[in-house]
């Protein structure tokens, strides 16, 4: 591992606040980052899936990174998602992310262009060779439609290509296999709902989208796990699992992602952090009933 | 339909020649476009899947478009793929593509970010509203992991959002449903191997990747179909089906896409059109045995 | 090929009429078989997917076969589906089907137990070796969750294991590959909606579920195709495609199969062939509105 | 819940020993059941997926059940898989299983015939109504190609249809949701490799195929978990995870199931429990190298 920039902890995938005109709401972003830092998070991950990176033009992505790095001011590391379809395009984001203040990079396998596992090692090695920053593999089959196998991760951990894994696959068996094959390798789970189990299995950290809404909860969960108090960690996890059901408020009239990101943003409006709940085109916005449902769930979770 | 820029015919998805250093090989691209025009193709589609668009940085994409539009010089329309993860990013490509000479735009549904069918109409409408060029929907489930339903296409055809459909889904039943629901709507098939059937069902045109290698064959097939000579069309199709097996030369040691694009490029090297068979990172290059197999298949098809 | 028992033609997958108590309605079955024979069908396929074979206890399956063979009385061949999870169980059905009058057997690849393509040849060879009747492979990925590759079919055609293929995969490209690799091999399509295209590509016959409802239409389509009149075949196909939309009357409150089988049976009640529209447990029955919708579609198709 | 027949513990899915002629090897089965009982298992599950139920004719299935119930002689409950394509066929197995000594029944959702979630409740309710034995839902998406949702399970637990769930889905998040929605409901995990985690989350028992080979290991794991010693449970699990890799000895020349069942049987031959490693047609048998690899893994796990 090239750089112990990020060892462990809660690293929320920071949402990207938008104005009603769908421009970056810098003031809200600064407030959100401050809110997360005050809650004691250990790092910040920008321009990931929860940050609507797939919707943001390049200049907005880099501005998000700059603003976040500016507020973080070195207190915690800032990781940048460099999400694009294949290696040459991803490397361009890597350069830009380094220039705009990223301290580590988070890259998926190629997507859209049909690729295959034999081509994955060359992808990650080329990115790592191009830009001298710690590189974290982002395993997110729901978006990439391929799974990074534990053997691939172990191979790229062993030769120093990867500094870590952000596992959003939901496959805890494979997460465990990575930890067994590459002991000490940094694994962060993207799961909101099985965070305690991932830590129990040896994961070092959490990257929960819901951590934008309730960072204190995830910090408590993480601290309980660190001291081996699995009962307390489980208790906190159960509360967060109930809160997490707010992602379904949009029902079947929209995609689940629209519903989830809309609900997270609405919750942060309710908590006074964001000025607007606006999401990117073509996501369908929550209506009044759905927004009220979000607030009801917040209240049930003691955050009302 | 806003503009009869492209009515029918053979519209190859133009390959992107690269130098051994993986820079755009402009001379080879010019030669390739000239080769296709001489063969009598009716349009040119750049920066699509066969054009390695998912691998090309923005500046390379736009340079490919400029070079192609320059050689075409208005003889045939030039369509540009505007491939990106979601609406705001796609719209940026749409502006750029218009500025660099595109006469029509080809856009997929959103990918990577989990989206859902209720969000697809807003996506295509926002693109069409942003840039005044004919818009063709690109249905390619192997890359996007969603299918554009005939009902969606019919709705967007009826309200003028779409000027056409490039169907790379392989679902001929759905293609037929589109043609029944929206009579006269322009449908182009991306299939190399069922082109005659698609024309039999009423499709207006062909966008075959193999059309880079053997444009004369697809023009003959198309002309036979236009005059209703299905026996001759089927005969030509059978020859092209045999030739198309060259895409498997790479076997299981690489992804099928690496094998296919590598084989197409090698065939064009053999035919004296491209200077190099280089493909993008992280595609695995063909080895000597595989390149020889490509040449053998060319010879069998009478192109050696 | 061991026996030219079934050369070509329209071979409806016969529905299984049930009484309101969900016992076999023998009288209705006899009437249905007579209706099909009067319409000029060339064969009868019992205990297939449309025959609710997956729901029928063994004794009911064999009784259906007996009744059908009795009515057919040698006028046309009777094929029997021998649908079960793997080889030893399928072979037991093969013995029983032969004993109850089947003249050919139709078997899928194994399902439920995870199997893999290397195991498929042994499966079909063991069935063929056990019972001396022509064997037809049944390719139905929607149920089996595996596709029989053209190479597998060609191998089993070449060594005499298979006498034919019933292709319910919807993959016309693969159907064409089978016909190219094994010229003269009997291929029957299970498609209701692309029957004309399958015949155009060289398929010898049709096994359309909708052929229970409108056997005359499929016989006309087939005869038009035999005399090379693709315009007339296409015209008939278009009418049948519109009629086929009756399978969606159940909407989303039930599975599509419940809706389709329920609609076929209701249509045959309306036409005076079946006494009841009852379907097997746990299929959800059509309600009054849905039954009326079936009758409306029949009327639109000129069968009211 | 109708009957506390099975409260908790290790319930191996008993393998079905076959002679070289592929008949039931009763002596080996008796020895295997005795071996499991001696190891302290808490129940026995016959004619499940590991028992090759999908391959066994009905009479063999029922003989397996009889033999097992005879050896168990009431010391532990015997559960019977009633695996078939849909409700009426499953109910026939339910009657037979009760007659042959089953104390609880284990049924999947319908498969092969396309069914849909709205039809699942009727399926399980009809089975439960037909035969008065505790009913356990078997969630095995790899075979059934559908997942039983936590909401469905909770609904059928609440109304007394289900007495338990055998979860072979690998989805620990959903398993947790079931336990949260239906507190106290019996959930058994089918996972060999995440058994400790399932118990940590509140599952009451284990149904591990590998438990045929090393029942003592799973009993130790279970007992450690019962006394809350997660470190010891995890240690045992790690050893069993390494042993479990024996399922891949067949590599890619056969399906994974052939490899796994073949390896389990070979391991039991090596341990002196089974007389033969024979598997059902059309599974591909292990060769000498592969059998030696099984023995090497056994030795590494301290079972050589």
TrEMBL record, chains A, B, C, D:
Query: Which residues are pyruvate-binding?
Result: 207
Q: Where is the signal peptide?
A: none
* Keywords carried by this UniProt record: Lyase, Schiff base
Give the residues annotated as active site: 138 (proton donor/acceptor), 166 (schiff-base intermediate with substrate)
**PROSITE patterns per UniProt:** DHDPS_2
Kindly give the CDD domains that the UniProt entry links to this protein: DHDPS-like
Q: Which InterPro entries match?
A: Aldolase_TIM, DapA-like, Schiff_base-form_aldolases_AS
Q: GO annotations under biological process?
A: N-acetylneuraminate catabolic process
Q: Please give the SMART domains that the UniProt record associates with this protein.
A: DHDPS (SM01130)
SUPFAM superfamilies xrefs:
Aldolase
Q: Name one GO molecular function term.
A: N-acetylneuraminate lyase activity
Q: State the GO CC annotations.
A: cytosol
Task: Tell me its family.
Answer: Belongs to the DapA family.
Protein name according to UniProt? Dihydrodipicolinate synthase family protein
- Species annotation: Amycolatopsis acidicola
